[in-house]
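Our collaborator T.R. sent over the components below with a one-line note: 'Predict the complex.' Nothing else. No constraints on interfaces, no templates requested, no preferences about which chain binds where. So this is a plain run: every listed entity goes in together, and whatever single assembly comes back becomes the starting point for the next discussion.
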Amino acid sequence: MKADVLSIDLHTHILPPELPDRRAITGYGGWTTLEHLSPGCGRLMIDGKHFRDVCSRSWDPARRIADCDATGVAVQVLSTVPVLFSYWAQPRHALDLARTLNDHLAGVVAAHPDRFEGLGTVPLQDPELAIGELERCMGELGLRGVEIGSHVNAWNLDDPALLPFFAAAERLGAAVFVHPWEMMGRAEMPRHWLPWLVGMPAETARAACSLVFGGVLARLPRLRVALAHGGGSFPFTIGRIDHGHRVRPDLCATEIDAAPSSFLDRLYLDSLVHDPRALRYLVELVGADRLALGSDYPFPLGEAVPGRLVRSMSDLSDAQKSRILAGTAREFLGLDAPGTPGDPGDPGTPGTAANPGARR
Amino acid sequence: MKADVLSIDLHTHILPPELPDRRAITGYGGWTTLEHLSPGCGRLMIDGKHFRDVCSRSWDPARRIADCDATGVAVQVLSTVPVLFSYWAQPRHALDLARTLNDHLAGVVAAHPDRFEGLGTVPLQDPELAIGELERCMGELGLRGVEIGSHVNAWNLDDPALLPFFAAAERLGAAVFVHPWEMMGRAEMPRHWLPWLVGMPAETARAACSLVFGGVLARLPRLRVALAHGGGSFPFTIGRIDHGHRVRPDLCATEIDAAPSSFLDRLYLDSLVHDPRALRYLVELVGADRLALGSDYPFPLGEAVPGRLVRSMSDLSDAQKSRILAGTAREFLGLDAPGTPGDPGDPGTPGTAANPGARR
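Returned assembly:
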């Protein structure tokens, strides 16, 4: 394939250049703040505790565009850093932060509409407020959907409280990108980055299983959902998951009759698995039509040259590579759908004429 | 291949027919008991609360042998049910239970030495007591090693407290079969069997990562370790794990310089993935030499006809199938090693002349 095939990177994170402490406004702590240490270097802090070092790639559109130009990325899809979901906070305060983040993100997109698309964040701890902000994202802000966490405090994604939100996403044609956060087991495996290496893939499997077993995907046939990190451990344990559904229907088939694997073609997965054998497994399992380039830019656990793995795979056809590098993201985001984002008349559902590559 | 190739099932569970409540002896509750409801039907209970229904396959050697005869299993490797690890209990009480379980298990093996091999259990919350019981298992009881949990209370498997135990296992030539238990996230995802479907694969990855990142495998080059359920999510996320080691050596390379994937040939994996594509991935990743049939008999999440998946795979050679169905377990268990089990002079280390199939 041509080396200059331009790609859409579905999985990138962005911060506003200023993240002041909201303790003064809200009267309580726990908020993530950004301290600038030196030009181009910052640090995310929570209540004065170090969370993560970040660099200007996290907030500087010009630097991001320069990186994209150097690596053949045509479009970055921007979403916030999961620590900022702030589902733990009081809903009105989380809404206020979400509005700030979404306004910033939409501003970056509007300033460079040919280089960025955006996924907003919503205060899911209050589904009604979340729906309101989702409508704003899809309407006046011109975003393509939202990034959400793998769970919302004590709710898994199939909690009945969240169903109206997912129904709204379906109605609005909003793409829903699920990102792991607040990783299970993080307190029990503090060393060796295991919350990121073990907990995150498990979180994504938890989210996928909840959407599948809880009947969310079954109830909302046009809802578009993507999972980060190649779907975490979900695609690779699908045999075990199907088997569980088969042998313990009393536990697993309470909401769905069909095998969990039959919902694989309802999920999009990003390509971030860092291994050609794993990516090949995903292609075999779900097909290139469900796989979209995602790099986790600008974080170190991501793919430094987005798409390098996909491009390196000699057993993928040019059509498959092109689909993974750009086509699937276009479909997931509804970029080819007629009408404007947020138009309930045509949410860019997979399988429409505008999406000839869709399987459904 | 011939349909009648006999197999060794590395992953089966057994209970003694009686499990009385130890509350009266120990003065505290939490013990797992077995209630017999009707002939052939029982129920595991914890403090009067239902844990799991079991049938006589769990304790009746004759019924197990009949099942083996019907499914072409030559040898079952017996290990206890993880809920009985009882790492939470006072060490001397856990030792007492382990001795009871091991005596029972060894008795079954001794009564049918051509049909059963055994892996004992040890009170890992007290490594010194655990070493003593391991020595008894490998000596007078004639077992092949032990089954252990994916963590021990607050210790991950790389906790310095456990290193003497693993060193003893290496010295004694004891096979160590790691089984997930006390699954991370179980409180947060109570529905749809997710502790088993999501938590267990994550637990196994946690155990594998701890053994790798914590330097246990590096320090003990002859230690033989197997992981249940195809290694859980570990083999499928190895690209992410390697990448983490590469980009955050401050967190991940504190004990090992080599890539985590370089330790894949130090781990045996059972074949219990319930999907030909996943098994094919494992064969590609680690080779048939590291894969051993495991069925989780007699539990429903297991493979009802042990080896059916392996036998069904037309892209595996007869030699690969034979290796997975029996050869790898022979090597892992040290069945072909000269000398008796527990002979420190020859622990049946992979790579000896007795194990020509070994990769190392």
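Summary for T.R.: Confidence is low (pLDDT under 50) at residues 340-360 of chain A.
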